[in-house]
Amino acid sequence: ENISDFSLNITDCTQVVVPEEVFFTVAAAGILENLLILIAVVRNKNLHLPMYFFICSLAISDMLGSLYKTLENIFIILCKMGYLTRHGDFEKKLDDAMDSMFILSLLGSIFSLLAIAADRYITIFYALRYHNIMTLRRALVILAIIWAFCAGSSIAIALFSYEAATVIPFTILFPLMMFFILCLYVHMFLLARSHAKKIALLPSSTVHHRTNMKGAITLTIFLGVFLCCWAPFVLHILLARFCPHNPYCACYMSIFHVNGTLIMCNAIINPMIFAFRSPELRSTFKKMFYCSR
Amino acid sequence: MSALRLISNRTSQQALSNSDYTWDYEYYEYGPVSFEGLKAHKYSIVIGFWVGLAVFVIFMFFVLTLLTKTGAPHQDHAELSEKRFRMNSFVADFGRPLESERVFSHQMGEESQSLFHFCINEVDHMNKEKENQKGPSLESNTHFHEAPKSSGMFEEDLHCLTKFNIPNFVNTEQNSSLGEDDLLISESPIIL
């Protein structure tokens, strides 16, 4: 017998395991941070604006992502300790529910980012009519539609996750949305650049290129962080569907937990680059913390 | 022979795990994968993916910084005042530039004072004219706004009214200024 033909070297490319403490710390930090943002927006009447509602929507989707990972870890620990059976029907349903929560979080993040970009776009290019275009009620309706669509799609994707027909649209949606958001921001950026140039022509101005450099850095951070945190997972889904037995794909899929931790890091970073840039929100936080002391 | 038995054990295990549901850290049941005869490094997809992602992000950054340096200003100077405030708030929200912000605010301070007095008069004037022209002025206002290359004087009038009504970036009393929305949109422009 040619044993080498049947060598099952599954010890190569073992699952890279992230320590549970790291997992829980990152998840808890993400949940707390986003919860703080929600509380701050609810408590401060000045923040009842469409822009902050979209930021809240992003915070909710980040929270869902971290919550999913935390719950999953808790359930796995419970399984290992024997409190939950591994082969139960209830556990399967629970796992499906949690999968759909995770996909809901991803879709919610993408659409919230899209809404934030569109809101900023309208603010820049339709500044005079902004209050008429983006009323509070319209913003809430838009958010309701987004979340209804995300909930429906996530349940459908979780139920039919092994069909190619769900995996392909899911993985196409991701870069498509990123590209669209990038286009919106680039257009805003071009406007800022042309104005900076005009202001530089004024005799008394001392505008440096640093102004627009910071804009470029900020934009790159916005989109780069989202890409780096979510793209590994999306690639994982693609590979799991189309080449699960290829050794290269299997090695990529062995870092699944690192990808999950990255998604939770996204939940921590997103508030810093969206919510905490607003001075009103920062002052609300200060008031919340200093008043409680 | 022992190898064959091993294989049959594993495959039956896999069949079992496919039918029953298991909840494990091994999230996906990959099954036996042979790592023999790999031409490239086994983590090549991982490395290739991350390198590609880093290259893409850096490329995006360079494209954006190139955008700051190339291109000529083709819009006329007259629009500058109308969009300067927007530009200021846009940049302030995006990048928080320190020096240029001071420059902007200094310029804006001087300009806003003169515009402020101008606006007080204009708002009073417009209040009287509000009842006269409501319907058709809406169309003309939207048309004027959508075509940014319009006369500078009109832009300055609208610009002064927007100072009381800037969304989001400036911490004005948003709730109180909502009442001025109708005033802003329905007013006819006063051309000096």
UniProtKB/TrEMBL annotation, chain A:
<keyword id="KW-0449">Lipoprotein</keyword>
<feature type="transmembrane region" description="Helical">
    <location>
        <begin position="140"/>
        <end position="162"/>
    </location>
</feature>
<feature type="transmembrane region" description="Helical">
    <location>
        <begin position="213"/>
        <end position="235"/>
    </location>
</feature>
<keyword id="KW-0325">Glycoprotein</keyword>
<dbReference type="InterPro" id="IPR001168">
    <property type="entry name" value="ACTH_rcpt"/>
</dbReference>
<keyword id="KW-0472">Membrane</keyword>
<keyword id="KW-1003">Cell membrane</keyword>
<keyword id="KW-0807">Transducer</keyword>
<comment type="similarity">
    <text>Belongs to the G-protein coupled receptor 1 family.</text>
</comment>
<dbReference type="Pfam" id="PF00001">
    <property type="entry name" value="7tm_1"/>
</dbReference>
<dbReference type="InterPro" id="IPR000276">
    <property type="entry name" value="GPCR_Rhodpsn"/>
</dbReference>
<feature type="domain" description="G-protein coupled receptors family 1 profile">
    <location>
        <begin position="33"/>
        <end position="274"/>
    </location>
</feature>
<protein>
    <recommendedName>
        <fullName>Adrenocorticotropic hormone receptor</fullName>
    </recommendedName>
</protein>
<feature type="transmembrane region" description="Helical">
    <location>
        <begin position="168"/>
        <end position="192"/>
    </location>
</feature>
<dbReference type="InterPro" id="IPR017452">
    <property type="entry name" value="GPCR_Rhodpsn_7TM"/>
</dbReference>
<keyword id="KW-0564">Palmitate</keyword>
<dbReference type="GO" id="GO:0005886">
    <property type="term" value="C:plasma membrane"/>
</dbReference>
<feature type="transmembrane region" description="Helical">
    <location>
        <begin position="22"/>
        <end position="42"/>
    </location>
</feature>
<keyword id="KW-0812">Transmembrane</keyword>
<dbReference type="GO" id="GO:0004978">
    <property type="term" value="F:corticotropin receptor activity"/>
</dbReference>
<feature type="transmembrane region" description="Helical">
    <location>
        <begin position="102"/>
        <end position="128"/>
    </location>
</feature>
<keyword id="KW-1015">Disulfide bond</keyword>
From TrEMBL, chain B:
<dbReference type="GO" id="GO:0070996">
    <property type="term" value="F:type 1 melanocortin receptor binding"/>
</dbReference>
<dbReference type="InterPro" id="IPR028111">
    <property type="entry name" value="MRAP"/>
</dbReference>
<keyword id="KW-0472">Membrane</keyword>
<dbReference type="GO" id="GO:0031783">
    <property type="term" value="F:type 5 melanocortin receptor binding"/>
</dbReference>
<dbReference type="GO" id="GO:0005789">
    <property type="term" value="C:endoplasmic reticulum membrane"/>
</dbReference>
<dbReference type="GO" id="GO:0030545">
    <property type="term" value="F:signaling receptor regulator activity"/>
</dbReference>
<keyword id="KW-1133">Transmembrane helix</keyword>
<dbReference type="GO" id="GO:0005886">
    <property type="term" value="C:plasma membrane"/>
</dbReference>
<dbReference type="GO" id="GO:0031780">
    <property type="term" value="F:corticotropin hormone receptor binding"/>
</dbReference>
<comment type="similarity">
    <text>Belongs to the MRAP family.</text>
</comment>
<feature type="transmembrane region" description="Helical">
    <location>
        <begin position="43"/>
        <end position="67"/>
    </location>
</feature>
<dbReference type="Pfam" id="PF15183">
    <property type="entry name" value="MRAP"/>
</dbReference>
<dbReference type="GO" id="GO:0031782">
    <property type="term" value="F:type 4 melanocortin receptor binding"/>
</dbReference>
<dbReference type="GO" id="GO:0106070">
    <property type="term" value="P:regulation of adenylate cyclase-activating G protein-coupled receptor signaling pathway"/>
</dbReference>
<dbReference type="GO" id="GO:0031781">
    <property type="term" value="F:type 3 melanocortin receptor binding"/>
</dbReference>
<keyword id="KW-0256">Endoplasmic reticulum</keyword>
<keyword id="KW-1003">Cell membrane</keyword>
<keyword id="KW-0812">Transmembrane</keyword>
<protein>
    <submittedName>
        <fullName>MRAP2 protein</fullName>
    </submittedName>
</protein>
<dbReference type="GO" id="GO:0072659">
    <property type="term" value="P:protein localization to plasma membrane"/>
</dbReference>
